[in-house]
Amino acid sequence: MKLKRIAVVGLLTLSIVIGLCLFLSGTIKTIVTPKVQFVTVKSGVLTERFSLPCTLVYRETEGLRHEVPEGMVIGQCSVQTGDAVKAGDPLFSLRLQDEQSREAQLMEAYHTALIEEAAFLREHASDNPTADEEAYYAAHEAWEQSVIQEGDARLIMEKLLPPGIDLPDEGYPEEADEELIHAIDSYRASHTARIAAGNALNSIPADEVRDGILRFFADKQEMERHVQSAKEALLAFQMAQDTVKTITAPHDGYIAEVCVRVGDAYDGTAPLCFLTGENGGPVLEADASSMARSMTDGAEITVQTEWGDFSSKLLTTEMTRDGRLCFDAVIPQEITERGVSLRRLADSAITISATIRSGEAHALVPVSAIHGVGKHRYVYVVEESASALGGTEWSVREYAITVLAEADGYASVEEPLNRVRLAYMEDKELSDGCTVIGGAE
Hints:
It contains seven helices and 24 strands.
């Protein structure tokens, strides 16, 4: 009886020890085994939604300049940045600097010259030259000019004559080239003309010419030149007022920037404004450098403004000069139809938004389930097996993948992982082949 009691106590003790060991082993396993969440991979089209701030910019602009005869001043500016203009529309008016005072000065100079000429002629009204005196003065003027022309021709010839060579009475020096021959001919012709002018002057009887008549003619010509000079200066100023008064648009376009203000001096070297080309115009530009994928030209987008949301299209995707990837979008016509000027639009907050969908269906994997960097990317595939105690046990196997694109927390991968169960959101680092404790999907 005593032995039977001892055996029963031993069996109970052994059962307790075995249960305690199983409990402790399960507890230890729970502590050291990574806990994960399961997710079953599905196939689908990757969708990326984006919203980007944008600004209004002008493409293909050209500086509009206008040649002016002298320093001008901007008298009027008829346009502002953002205005649409048609060919021939007035843009600016110019006026000459100190226009009124300068015109008054030139007019006064002209009137003074007229009065001085009239006073001179009135003073010498009784000294009207005779026909012989007119002829004498004309002959004297011709003789003076012939003397000057002969002297100039001699200078040119002597400069071309070789050193130590004198001009023969007839013909040319043996060393004379074509240029020297031409210079010698010109000198001889001017010499002949000077002698003829002297003979013509001497043919007029000197006793028929009054003393001082040459001075009279010289003063009279000076008066005439003075009047002519003052008149030409006044006419040039008045013509300048008319010819550069209004600057018009050379073709249809938009004013991208106004570079001058009323009252600014203008000399024709700097642009008055920048005008878009005939095929250019304003667009909405968004910096797309942060986007993982690009969009195709013509894609549908939404323009969001303080006046509402409007449908539009993507024009182009291009790289700017500073290396940024940008979208150019069409400005919705509905915005301008509501009376919103481009200037107001440029000063407001604008965003463009759109959804990009990949063209083909691929396995879509949560980005949080993907490990590795660069080309070495992988996931942990869950494998299920029976445990030694008759339960279910899970382990993970490392599986290399090729990521095609990412958006909104998912990545499309090239490998056929549809309906494959993956482990992710682990509380401990995973390794190939390790056992895990799985949670609900």
